[in-house]
Specification:
2 domains; three-stranded antiparallel β-sheet; 9 helices; 13 strands; alpha/beta; 16% strand
């Protein structure tokens, strides 16, 4: 009788530990990707990429790592994930005007077919209207406090919604990018049909470096912290298939522990998502050749140089004016206390 009680206790303890582990895993968002065989997922469409990186702004403060981030994404897409050279469009610095960005989105809408997958990567300034919570991308010629020179998130979503492509994955490393999203939703169960189900359904997903807060330009190895961990995962991944929800699970905790920003990843709001996800496929899983030749996109002529010395000096002039006001306030206070008159 005593032995039976001991065995019962052991069984109870085992069940308790298993149940507790499941609860902890659910609360922490731990997800184990199902194991799949190489080339087990039939992908019939082409892969396209639009990569935008802006450091050399004309009217607002310059950045240091956006261009390097975008170029590094290009390299890993071509070398490890089989993106064809002529299907990757780069818009860098002076080329990244509002016209060129919007034209590139329009061209993708025309070129990407119903079975194709599109990745859009933006690294640059973001802006938000705090009153209306409207978010924007800031092109190279964007002017501070001038929304008419920006590209609204609504415009970006509209272009994505009109694309014929089966999957569109937008990755935005910019401030205030969280307004791209709708409310969250539960992920499908992880089983042997996981990737087939995600690839079969149309998707419009996004991954942003933060929610509705500023995000850092500096990080590690010359990249922003967001780009560093995003690239690290793409470079080190050995699974044949990789999806946005898994990318988020891997990099969000690392970014959260190393910055004050919290990445976000889910379907884009009002963009036509139907429950699928973009599927990254290793080149080794498809037999695609490794292409390493740098890509030289043909774009419209760059804008003329603009003298921004006045803007660059604005910050120091503003601080000087503030110091003068503070000094005059002290003089007025002293005069009032000592009954000093002019």
């Amino acid at each position: 009788m005593r032995r039976l009680t001991f065995v019962s206790l052991l069984l109870f303890g085992f069940v308790f530990l298993v149940s507790a582990s499941a609860v902890l895993a659910e609360k922490r968002g731990v997800a184990v990707m199902p194991q799949v065989a190489v080339d087990s997922l039939p992908i019939t469409g082409d892969y396209w990429a639009l990569l935008i990186g802006i450091d050399q702004y004309q009217h607002v403060p310059k950045l240091q790592s956006a261009v390097k981030d975008a170029q590094a994404v290009r390299e890993v897409l071509v070398q490890r994930y089989g993106f064809a050279r002529d299907h990757v469009i780069e818009i860098i610095n002076r080329q990244a005007t509002r016209k060129n960005i919007e034209d590139a989105l329009y061209q993708l809408r025309k070129k990407a077919g119903p079975q194709d997958s599109v990745l859009i990567y933006y690294a640059g300034h973001g802006q938000i209207d705090q009153e209306d919570q409207i978010g924007y991308w800031v092109p190279v010629e964007g002017e501070a406090q001038s929304p008419g020179t920006f590209i609204s998130n609504a415009r970006i979503r509209d272009e994505i919604a009109k694309m014929k492509a089966k999957h569109v994955y937008l990755v935005a490393d910019s401030c205030f990018s969280g307004t791209l999203f709708a409310s969250g939703r539960a992920l499908p169960p992880l089983n042997d049909k996981f990737f087939q189900r995600l690839y079969a359904n149309k998707s419009r997903w996004g991954l942003t470096s933060g929610m509705n807060e500023p995000v850092t330009d500096q990080g590690k190895d010359g990249h922003s912290m967001f780009a560093y961990f995003f690239l690290k995962l793409l470079k080190e991944n050995e699974d044949p298939y990789l999806v946005p929800s898994h990318i988020y699970d891997q990099i969000a905790p690392l970014i959260g522990r190393n910055t004050d920003q919290q990445p976000r990843s889910e379907p884009l709001q009002n963009a036509g998502d139907e429950g699928g996800q973009f599927v990254f496929r290793l080149a080794s899983a498809s037999g695609s050749p490794v292409l390493v030749k740098p890509i030289s996109p043909v774009l419209s002529p760059p804008p003329k140089d603009v003298d921004v010395d006045a803007y660059n000096n604005l910050d120091s002039l503003t601080k000087l004016a503030e110091k003068r006001e503070q000094a005059w306030a002290k003089v007025q206070t002293f005069a009032a206390q000592k009954s000093v008159t002019r």
